[in-house]
Structures
1.
Amino acid sequence: MPRIGVVTFPGSLDDRDALRAVRIAGAEPIPLWHAEHDLRSVDAVVLPGGFSYGDYLRCGAIAAQSPIMRDVIDAANAGMPVLGICNGFQILVEAHLLPGGLIRNERGAFVCRDQRLRVENADTAWTNDFTVGEEIVVPLKNGEGGYIASEDTLAELEGEGRVVFRYVGVNPNGSMHDIAGITNARGNVVGLMPHPEHAVEPGFGPDTPDAMRSGIDGLRLFRSALATVLSRV
Amino acid sequence: MPVVVVEVMPKPELLDPAGKATLGALRRLGHTTFSGVRIGKRFELSVDGPVDDTVLAEVRAVAEDLLANTVIEDVVAVYLGGAEAELDEFTGVTAGETH
């Protein structure tokens, strides 16, 4: 069974939900620890949400320098699927695995809502279970989720189809080009501010027209990674 | 013990929501003198021993690598802190080296 690791940093909050999402998707969840240099033979890695190292200095900045991130960066550069959710996305930009940066929300407030997203790239290691143009709903909760990048970087991301998810209806944090998530050139590293791991199990996800809390759109990111890993075996 | 000061500001072209909120508070207090507020960071790095060009070069390197994220922030000044620098600041003379 494919092994998908979830790194716990001091201040991670959603590591257990991410491990649960991995298990529900059908992979073996492997807890990883920030202070170790041990990826425990995982096939993919999730950097979860939270406030790693208290978000001191900048969100994700200290975590990006933690021991296990040396190994995650090497693995990502070798093609391993890596997903950064919320604080994990912030860690990925601070580690320079993804371009741009994330700044305080435009209106200055922490935002928590069920967020509609459009899938813009269904070829990444984490989105191959979707179709381009499809709309999904997953929870979003952040205070510093405004995606920014230089005009050149934005042009490169748009030109190469590397915007993976875009906000639909409401842009909750002032992100440039309504960007909710992006990928690297190779398509194995994906970062997004919304939380797919909170929409994986009926009864605990966003409301849908069918039933309250029945939304499980987020599960397909984890299924995508599973398919990616299995296709390489 | 010498202290090297590093000042970091959000890039001018980016919105600074914290500064904007502070400006709003100033307006509510009736201060109409100010047209903008931007909030940055000041780091004070203590050094054991004299601060020479090698140390300053190292400070500039860590300022760009870790203290600031140059995608969203600029290192606006690196200088030797302390009494003389404060005096210079008071008399309006730029203290130490700027970056």
2.
Amino acid sequence: MSGWLPKSAAGRRWLGLAPSYFIIGIFMLIPMIIMAVFSLLAPNPYGGVEPEFSTAAYVKLFFEYDLEDNLVFNPGYINIIFRSFQLSFGATILCLIFGFPVAYYITLQPEHKRNFYIYLITIPFWTNLLIRTFAWIIILGRGGVIETPLYALGIIEESLRMMYTDGAIAIGLTYSYLPLMVLPIYASLEKLDFRLLEAASDLYANRWEVMTKVVIPLCKPGIIAGCILVFIPCLGAFIAPNLLGGGKKLMLGSLVQFQFASARNWPFGAALSMLLLSAVVVVLIFYARSARKQAEAGQA
Amino acid sequence: MTTAIDIRGVTKIYNPNSERPVTALDNVSLTINDNEFFTLLGPSGCGKTTLLRLIAGFEQVSGGEIMLYDDEIENLEPNRRPVNTVFQHYALFPHMTVAKNVAFGLERLKKPGEEIKATVDRVLSLVKMKELGDRRPNQLSGGQQQRVALARALAPSPKVLLLDEPLSALDLKLRQAMREELKQLQKETGITFVFVTHDQEEALAMSDRIAVMSNGEVQQIGAPTEIYEHPVNRFVADFIGDTNFLDAEIVEVKDELVACKIGSQSMFEAANSGGHKVGDRVTLFLRPEKIRLSAAGQGSGADSRPGKIASMIYLGNQAAYTVDMGDGIELTAQARPREDGKMPHASGDDVTVQFSAHALRVLAQ
């Protein structure tokens, strides 16, 4: 009946995995190879690339040509990269500070309520991120939701200038990726044996110690997963920096988008993407290491 | 005698404001003495674990007071009560080594480092786990985890140790060995143990005193022999050990004995527990091991009655017989095997049944 199936177990396993290989290959591997190749070609001023080898895009990351055509060090892009890391890190910490209590609160609810709250957490995903980020312009902007009542109450007399700052970008990033922090932390808290909390308080741990000595160590895998799920898309984000940072406070993601859409320097955009990719790989290696260490320490 | 724990009129109601409030404990009062192995015994849902959790502080009382060596503790957080708990499923911290688990309470009490180390060593040797201090809980067997849970709860030298069915997850042999060890440990440490179990054998084997509970109320408190030999009501007599119950009517009251009519015409004499009068309908109880069986015609005396073996259940070291006494009366009796391993009676045999009138007791209805 199933004569067309491979005879060996290995063959059957390969057949089962084939769809995933196919999808990863078509949608992940091939685009990445295209980007790697593009980053090593010369730009076409009207967009696209010229089929000639060039490392100019990578040189441009760190150097520029001065008026006498000498290569000099240019910290501009490095600063943008540095700021990207800073803002992503800040947004990750903010997500953790807001996300952990939310996840913990949901875990403490009766089961039918828990599912409902998780459902609420995922509702923002139904609306386009661009539109949701626009909402923050209304909230933070001049004469916006925050400023108007403060004017009316006479607390402030001129604009707080909240828009187009690093703070605005961080708020936008935190808002965008908060659910990605809540969900993995919730998943690991849900598996937590709450009798351990009783055992800890029975052994003279106060509420703070119960949290720091038992709850947080035991849901560390969830916290790390959440941090990575927030940090990586933050690095590549361009909607929040463009809208809330006004396109002046660039981040890596917006820089890449700018190279492809406006500056028409595809190889440079591709080179920036490669840099972003390697940063992500570094973060993931760190994660894999800590996960392995934890597995060795004998906990799931 | 010093009182370790004094439970005064404690009531616990779950969901008090809902449509169906559940009364887990109803006005329970009892005292537990210093240096005592005290057992709360009862079927599941009787409130024994609730009472333990109220003492530990995991639940709040709905009414009443809990005194611990003259301190009122019912409103304190669990971490402010000088009692420790051995949990039913151990609840060891999976991310810590055995030694770290045992040190946890001492560290929270801010004991100096050398003292913590010395105490951890001492209690781990006390439970014979000294070699395994570096292991993680998931690398230990159930019995070993049990020992670590004990060591962890004993390390801070609590005034009272609470044990919530700690042996229920172990297999039979280990459970029996741990019974003796627990009893021994209680003697060595001099700490008051409050032990919760539904296993009557465990309770009888270890306890100084037992409180038998049912439906959120204490039915009887007493030493194991007292509970077993003089149960105050049918519930206690039924829950502890095997028992024959016989419905009877009192026909004559003498000094030490009462004469009862069972069935339509059978007359039995039973111990007079006082306060009975002719015509009372009562329940008599008789432990199977108090009944002697012998081959028909062998036994003699006023207390001999004829019977017929209706069925037999072989249990290895003994057999449980159901004996038909006629007049609708059936008794469960026991007999040991003979030296050649054969049981003395078989199904269908005629036998002589003997028991003392003092073994047949009148229970309050």
